[in-house]
């Protein structure tokens, strides 16, 4: 059965691949699993029918038969557990790759989301000027640690994994701020990932939607 995911009918990122359906598209492409996409408007996302799939009224969701999932990390893990290509076979390597998925979503991503919230939602707030450097500093600290851990390796732990997929997509979210380019190791890491044919296919698919191709 071919799974169906949901994505923005009109992505606010205008096809830059920053919305989180990109992670799921990329995972499907890495394992060679065809998928369908159901586009939802902002209004539809907040309706009961969509909230039955995603209680917070967001995308993406994943449906396959009588299974419905939300949360990109969980969806990517679900795909990775059922197809080769995103998690190593050895149990310890698998556990470490999943650790990197959590590190991306639970450690590195939160301050990056804070920066987005500040910049795109709190520019007029009295705390903006004082808080911006604090949040930028927190992001830089995590990126410094991540760059040190990655060193001159291609991927975070041996072969490319779902941990790299999640981490790279988190890092690409902060690329427009310019902070990623302060870390040559991480910028090269993301470029390596973006050069992957699976990433390119996933990116082209979401871009086609944004440009109405
Ligand atoms: N933790 C959840 C978060 C899901 C989420 O944040 N979804 C966003 C889209 S991806 C986040 C996103 C949005 C826009 C851009 N952009 O660049 O324009 C990038 C990423 C959403 O539906 N937002 C609508 C809403 O909350 O009402 C997950 O990982 O699935």
Question: How does this structure look, described?
Answer:
Residues 8-87 form the GST N-terminal domain. InterPro entries: Glutathione-S-Trfase_C-like, Glutathione-S-Trfase_C_sf, Glutathione_S-Trfase, Glutathione_S-Trfase_N, Thioredoxin-like_sf. It contains 9 helices and 4 strands. The longest helix is centred in the middle third of the chain and has 31 residues, at 91-121. The chain folds into 2 domains: 4-85 and 198-211, Glutaredoxin (3-Layer(aba) Sandwich); 91-196, Glutathione S-transferase Yfyf (Class Pi), Chain A, domain 2, CATH 1.20.1050. α1 (21-31) packs parallel to α4 (72-82), α5 runs parallel beside α7 (162-174) and α7 crosses α8. By secondary structure, the protein is an alpha+beta fold. Bound molecules: S-(P-nitrobenzyl)glutathione. Residues 12-13, 18-20, 57-59, 70-72 line the site of S-(P-nitrobenzyl)glutathione. S-(P-nitrobenzyl)glutathione (GTB) is lined by residues 12-13, 18-20, 57-59, 70-72.
């Amino acid at each position: 059965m071919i799974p169906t995911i949901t994505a923005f009918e009109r992505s606010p990122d205008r096809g830059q691949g920053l919305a989180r359906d990109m992670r799921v598209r990329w995972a499907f492409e890495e394992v060679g699993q065809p998928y369908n996409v159901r586009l939802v408007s902002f209004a539809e996302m907040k309706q009961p029918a969509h909230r039955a799939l995603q209680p917070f009224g967001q995308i993406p969701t994943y449906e396959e038969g009588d299974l419905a999932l939300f949360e990109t990390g969980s969806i990517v893990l679900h795909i990775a557990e059922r197809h080769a290509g995103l998690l190593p076979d050895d149990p310890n390597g698998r556990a470490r790759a999943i650790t990197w998925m959590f590190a991306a979503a639970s450690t590195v991503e939160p301050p990056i989301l804070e920066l987005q919230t500040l910049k795109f939602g709190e520019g007029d707030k009295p705390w903006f000027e004082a808080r911006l450097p604090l949040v930028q500093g927190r992001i830089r600290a995590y990126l410094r640690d991540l760059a040190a851990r990655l060193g001159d390796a291609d991927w975070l732990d041996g072969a490319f994994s779902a941990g790299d997929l999640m981490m790279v997509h988190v890092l690409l979210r902060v690329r427009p701020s310019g902070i990623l380019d302060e870390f040559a190791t991480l910028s090269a890491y993301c470029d390596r990932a973006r050069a992957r044919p699976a990433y390119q296919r996933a990116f082209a698919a979401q871009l086609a939607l944004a440009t109405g191709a």
